[in-house]
Amino acid sequence: MKILFLACLSPKTGNNTTAERIRSHIEKAGHTCELRDAREFQSSAEVAELLSRHHFQSALGIHLFKAGRFLLDIQIPFGIIFGGTDINEDVKVEQKRVVMEQVLLKARFAVAFTEELKKEAEVFMLSQSSKIYVQPQGVQTDVSDSFSWTEFLKSAGLHTEHVNDLRVFLLVCGLRRVKDPLYLADDFSEWHCDDPLNVLIIIGPKVDPVFTVEVEDVVHRTAGISVALERSQQELHAAMKRCFAVVNSSVSEGMSAAILEAMDLGVPVLARNIPGNASIVQHEFNGLLYSSPQRIPDPAGCPGLPARLAAGTRDSSLHDS
Length: 321
What we know:
The chain has 2 domains: 2-134, Rossmann fold, CATH 3.40.50; 149-316, Glycogen Phosphorylase B (Rossmann fold, 3-Layer(aba) Sandwich), CATH 3.40.50. Helix 10 (257-265) packs across helix 12. Helix 7 links the parallel strand 7 and strand 8 (198-203). It has helices at 14-28, 44-54, 85-88, 94-106, 115-124, 149-155, 185-194, 209-220, 233-242, 257-265, 275-278, 305-316, and strands at 2-7, 32-37, 58-62, 78-81, 109-112, 132-134, 167-172, 198-203, 225-228, 245-248, 269-272, 288-290. It is an alpha/beta fold. It is elongated. The strands form 2 sheets. It has a 6-stranded parallel sheet with strand order 2-1-3-4-5-6, with helices on both faces. It has a 6-stranded parallel sheet with strand order 9-8-7-10-11-12, with helices on both faces. The longest helix is centred in the first third of the chain and has 15 residues, at 14-28. Residues 301-321 are annotated as: Disordered. It holds the Pfam family Glycos_transf_1.
């Protein structure tokens, strides 16, 4: 079968990684899958013309609005995968919600990565709930053998003789507002002032240039917080494996790839208590959930907790083989 697959393919983002992984699985199953960036298209008529010209037999999209709206006029069957922000954020905008309802009505099936995301969708689109299937994401991590932890820290502006004593909290995210990377800045800075070995490093692609400038400005004048240059996936996984804990501070998530990757690497997770995160992080088993910056728990403050969390993450990992 020849399949057209639409997704927003911003480089080095969770959506891009997920789309590539799904494309790979489809092709391993013996099908032809052409992955295209939804941002290439201006209308569903353009997509319909592409489908006709290249004789695609079915289509798939990630994100009910960003990809789904371009599938409304096509004459072949299609499925849709919830992206996270479509159900958590875009449904609040009436114009987008109406479009997403139409997409779900026409789709043969829909996939949610978590039971919670399915429940959220059912609140707004209950009549189509029988079409929604839950399929958790799998992940595959690959650690670079040539990665230098010391060089990585220096690139983030951390110059210290106590490299092995640092407690590096790594916040992995694309720099955009929905990821809210500054949510914990003040409180982490207080931690750092109390104990200079505590540091927070923010790493990820500069998705929103205007917001990136804002983040870099705040970080520049906040003690204990750094921004690291983005790295290859292998180097990022190596940095995650060496850090004390991986942090998530997003306003909303479908299923965070960074959290899943941290679990696969056996690294403790500190995650904001939102539905997408709470669906995969069990508090004090495979991670710690916090509801506000003031209530963020310090894994170092409880002897034995980091090791217990690391063991829990390995037990919870959804490894994609």
